[in-house]
Amino acid sequence: MYAILYQETNMPPDTKPSIRLSTLFLEQPCWMIKPLATQMRYSIPSVRRFLAEVGYYSSFTHNGSWYTLRSIPRFGTDGLWFYTDIGFSRAGSLTNTLVDLITSSPAGMSAEQLGVKLRSRCHSVLLQLCRKGKLQRQKIGHSHVYLAMDSGIAAVQRQSAESLSIIQLPAEISVLILAECIRSPNASFDQLAKTISRNKGIAINPSQVVRLFEQHGLKKTIHPSDLKH
Question: In the chain, what percentage of residues exceed pLDDT 70?
Fold first, then answer.
């Protein structure tokens, strides 16, 4: 439930619809259509028409059921704006937003990365976009990465993603490395890599451990053997 109160407006009944609409959005930046129509004392089709005349965005979250005026969002460099957990995108719908984010990404994006950025799960929509020929999907390293449909852009993204996959680690191995670091805080990156490799029977190189610490913004006491990584 959202702590948004729908109070009776004090505006005169003959106030122009566009002014009434703008005033309500000054009181709260996001509205669902039914409460908005109740406050304006117009039918839902009429309110939709007023929104179209003024200019609006519908949310890419919550099945597009929230509205805000085009003048309200302050989009980030990724074209996204959130009000509490309600997300709006300069690209518009969730499908357009996914295509836009993935196409503009230097190395494509996984469903997990997109879920974190959009604050919502989007696996099924991504698969639909692939089936419709809007995106490509490829297994790179330990993850499925979504790439642009344009072959030239996708080739560059694929090369970047493959380079990154060399030093990226699956989540369960990352947890083991961090746990081992807590147990042995003075161990070098090389020692951490060798310990996990030996215990789990998998090949890990020190550069992957360095990258893991960089990704999480973690600091570690520098061991002399770390200086070569």
Answer: 82
